[in-house]
Each structure stands twice: as C-alpha cells, then as structure tokens.
Amino acid sequence: MNIYVGNLSLETTEDELRQEFTEYGEVTSVTMMNDRYIGSGQARGYGFVKMASKSEGVAAIANLEGKTMRNRVVNVVEALPLSDNGGMVSLNMRSYIRPHKKRERSNIID
Fold it and tell me: Would you say residue 32 lies in a domain?
C-alpha cells in the first residue's frame, strides 16, 4: 500500500518517517520529495511510504493521521495511483478554450 504523508517539517528525514510507520507493520520504502529538478535539493514537505500489506497501511493511516511530528500536524492518506499513461494528464484543450466574446460596457450613471 502506498501512503501519502503531507505537511511534514522540512527537517524530517526518511529514517524518522520510516520509524513512525514501522510501529504498524513492514515498511518497504520511504521517499521524501525534494526540488531536485531545479537543483536545490530543498525538501518539499511531503513524501510517500510503501507498506507491505494493505491492513498494515490502513492501521498506520488511522493512527498517524493528524499526529504532530516536529511541531507539524501531518496529513496521512492512501496515495492515489498514477494514471495508465505514465502520470501524464491528457487534456482536451478544446474544452478549455472559451470563445472570445466582446464585452460591452454599459455606462450607467446613478
């Protein structure tokens, strides 16, 4: 089961997160998100924890949601799966383009 953990302190480490979740079952991986794309490596304040079984994940979510870690109340929910197209969202742009309409100003004087 993949679990999203949000509102983490920027100082939270993968080991700390692993330790919190290990109380509820086997943790297979912990991934802390950061700004590696812009080169700073700055923590983003969220991460993902994978647990070996769904029942362990459900127990962890139930017990850790709303818990305070490093003076921050964390959000813990089941992570949504990536879409079938590799995480890319396809948009039908025609549905988002609004036709250009001229606005007429009304000069109302009270």
Answer: yes
Residue range of the domain that includes 69: 2-79
Of residues 98 and 43, more confidently modeled: 43
Query: Please, which pLDDT band fits residue 40 given cuts at 50, 70 and 90?
Result: confident
| Integer angstrom CA distances of residue 15 from 11, 20, 56, 79 | 11, 9, 18, 20
48/16 Cα distance (integer angstroms)? 13
Residue 11: CATH number of its domain: 3.30.70.330
Backbone angles phi, psi at 3, to 5 degrees: -125, 130
The number of distinct structural domains making up the chain is 1
Q: What is the pTM of this model?
A: 0.70
Q: Is residue 61 part of a domain?
A: yes
Count CA atoms within 13 Å of residue 66 on its CB side: 2
Quick one: pLDDT band at residue 93, thresholds 50, 70, 90?
very low
